[in-house]
Please model this.
Amino acid sequence: MNNNLLSAISRSRNIDTCYPWSIPDRIPSKPYVGQCTVTALLIHELLWGELLYDTNNNHCRNRLPDGTEVDLTKQQFENHSTIICDEIRTRDILFERWKKSDLGKRYILFKTRVLERLNTDEFSTI
Model:
């Protein structure tokens, strides 16, 4: 995965893109807390693959078309929980399930920030 994309994702996380019930756990040193769904959805939109879901930890991550698994927010599990994939979810299912948490609004905000940062970086390819 391109370093420009990783940097843009990291710099685009904010409290307004955080899963609402994770906000109390989110501190400046842990900007990845509550960001798994918006991050996984964006990776899926840009790079395709599958959206992996762990029902026990309520956690999303990606499997790219080449089989590589990508989890850009796994460090939020300080207790070193074992993250498994017990479901493959579609974008529609995720958006429907998280409708009450304003996932659509949070995702559009996150995606817009990431794409703006990619477009203003010196090397904007993904």
About this structure: The helical segments are 3-12, 36-47, 91-97, 103-120. Residues 3-120 form one domain.
